[in-house]
Amino acid sequence: MTTDRKPLDIKICGLKTDVALEAALAGGASHVGFIFFPKSPRNIEPDAAGRLRQAARGKASAVAVTVDADDALLDRIVAVMAPDMLQLHGSETPVRAAEIRARYGLPVVKAVSVRTASNLAAIEPYRGIVDRFLFDAKPPKGSELPGGNGVSFDWSLLARIPAGTDYFLSGGLNAGNIGEALRVAAPPAIDISSGVESAPGVKDPALIEAFFRAVKDSAKHRAA
Ligand SMILES: O=C(O)c1ccccc1NCC(=O)[C@H](O)[C@H](O)COP(=O)(O)O
């Protein structure tokens, strides 16, 4: 059987070490993400991220994740790390997203937090401005992190997204639930962070490998 579906993009986010990066690349990550948010256990300095992104060059797209960053921080990240893509994971407006895209000439991913169908309407003003969305769960009460909380949302809500919308399905994915997530939402791309960690901010190569294996197994399952 042949299919004209694009291969699934897979982003491993919150990388901080060579070992974790190697595991992500060995598994076949299309994207590797670096978090620039001091409150996060995954926070990384631009020069360290630049060294890792250099090792990923030609193998995976490097994504710089920021939260309502000002131009000074973005200038520094872009100059030092040279990302392929910018992920905006805060309350950036469509105007701000457009400014950032124009200023750096880089593709922009806008994170949107989802709990109910009405949250998905939030993407409409960003259409034609950003290159891709990332649908994540709303952070649990009390969390200081807008992402990386290991919480998922109702994937069936994504059935309402207009066909052709490019997005990462994110939030609470792991080797145990990715098969079901792919079956329910059939997303063009997926993103994972805490589901491949042994402790907050500590990526576990064995969990990364298990995640890629689960993705492959589920694809085999669906093709059979
Ligand atoms: O991961 C973080 O610590 C983080 C902090 C601040 C903004 C964004 C953050 N993560 C962004 C991501 O793209 C995560 O991969 C995404 O939220 C999914 O995380 P998880 O539910 O842990 O898989």
Question: What this model shows, in words?
Answer:
With 224 residues, the protein is of the alpha/beta class. It is 33% helix and 20% strand. Strand 3, helix 3 and strand 4 form a beta-alpha-beta unit. Helix 2 packs across helix 3 and helix 6 crosses helix 7. The longest helix is centred in the last third of the chain and has 19 residues. The chain binds ligand LARABZUK.
| Secondary structure tally, helices | 7
The mean pLDDT is: 95
How many E strands?
A: 10
Task: List low-pLDDT spans.
Answer: none
Shape: globular
Give the radius of gyration: 16 Å
Quaternary arrangement of the chains shown? single chain
Helix content: 25-40%
The biggest beta sheet, please? Answer: 8 strands, parallel, barrel
Strand content: 15-25%
- Ends: how far apart? 10 Å
Would you tell me the structural class of the helices and strands?
Answer: alpha/beta
Q: Which ligands accompany this protein?
A: ligand LARABZUK
Give the neighbour order of strands across the main sheet.
Answer: 1-2-3-4-5-6-7-8
Strand/helix succession: EHEHEHEHEHEEHEEEH
Set out the fold topology.
Blueprint: E1 9-12, H1 18-27, E2 31-36, H2 46-56, E3 61-66, H3 71-81, E4 85-88, H4 94-104, E5 108-114, H5 117-120, E6 132-137, E7 167-169, H6 178-185, E8 189-192, E9 197-199, E10 202-203, H7 205-223
Parallel strand pairs: 1-2, 1-8, 2-3, 3-4, 4-5, 5-6, 6-7, 7-8
Antiparallel strand pairs: 9-10
Helix pairs in contact: 1-7, 2-3, 6-7
Bound molecules: ligand LARABZUK.
The ligand O=C(O)c1ccccc1NCC(=O)[C@H](O)[C@H](O)COP(=O)(O)O binds at residues 13-14, 33, 35, 37, 40, 42, 65, 67, 89, 136, 145-150, 170-173, 191-195.
